[in-house]
Design brief:
By secondary structure, the chain is of the alpha+beta class. The chain has 4 helices and 12 strands, in the order αββααβββββαβββββ. It has a 7-stranded mixed β-sheet with strand order 3-4-2-1-8-11-10.
């Protein structure tokens, strides 16, 4: 595995790995992202803007739905809701010390990311929101994903470039659309709660693809525009975006 592909995986391991353990999902907020692919397979990718960590709740990890446990209830008795003691115990889970610990961990993640290659800036601004300035370049002799961690149980690539045969590349940005079924990242656990609804509402940005390669297909309604460097396709992403940006290019074998 080349350094180019290995480092983005390791770079995001601290972020996605921690967020997995904390039952969170990484999604874009307000952003600008660009991907330039040349016919010779050289490429440059950039993402500047917000990354949000949405709390999915502890029950989401196992696919369980909130309910009372009646296994210990005497036979014939009606099932009852949680007691005041149980409610109080749950409230203690969100103590001030836990909040401070969460803040410290988020700050530590931002500090670690800011030291990694590709991250020109990584700043935690509160409320599970990171301000990111990321850019990397190289040659597409293999797939490219951003962000991705193979050991994380939550996998939501914002942008993916796949090799298709000897001379084609497919670009797809599933993270830049609200129709993408993010629940599949945890094995089809279903709804992830209102926090993720807020993340969906925060989706606001543009994704720009530029290339001098042949465009075999793409799904932007206005099509590609001619520019001095080749062609450009711009997708505007909002909470109403239901189809992930996608394009297939023909490059040199």
């Amino acid at each position: 595995m080349t350094r180019l592909f290995h480092r983005p995986l390791r770079i995001m391991a601290a972020l996605t790995g921690f967020l997995t353990l904390s039952a969170c999902l990484v999604t874009p907020g307000k952003f600008e992202s660009s991907l330039d692919i040349r016919a010779d397979r050289s490429f440059a990718f950039a993402y500047k803007g917000e990354i949000l960590a949405s709390d999915m709740g502890k029950d989401a990890l196992s696919g369980a739905t909130p309910s009372s446990d009646s296994s210990d209830a005497p036979e014939g008795e009606a099932e009852t809701g949680p007691t005041l003691m149980q409610i109080a115990a749950k409230e203690e889970d969100f103590s001030e010390s836990d909040a401070k610990g969460d803040e410290a961990q988020m700050q530590a993640i931002a500090a670690a990311l800011s030291k990694e290659k590709g991250f020109r800036a990584a700043r935690y601004v509160g409320n599970h929101k990171f301000e990111i300035d990321y850019a990397i370049s190289g040659t597409l002799t293999h797939a490219f994903l951003f962000p991705f961690n193979i050991d994380a149980q939550i996998v939501l690539p914002f942008v993916a470039v796949e090799l298709r045969g000897a001379d084609r590349l497919r670009v797809k940005a599933p993270g830049f659309a609200n129709a993408f079924d993010k629940s599949h990242g945890m094995g089809g656990m279903g709804s992830m709660g209102g926090g993720n609804d807020e993340a969906a509402k925060a989706l606001n940005g543009t994704f720009t693809l530029t290339t001098d390669a042949e465009i075999v297909s793409q799904n932007q309604e206005e099509g590609a525009q001619a520019i001095p460097q080749g062609k450009r396709i711009v997708w505007t992403v909002t909470p109403m975006t239901s189809e992930a940006p996608m394009a297939t290019l023909r490059v040199k074998p």
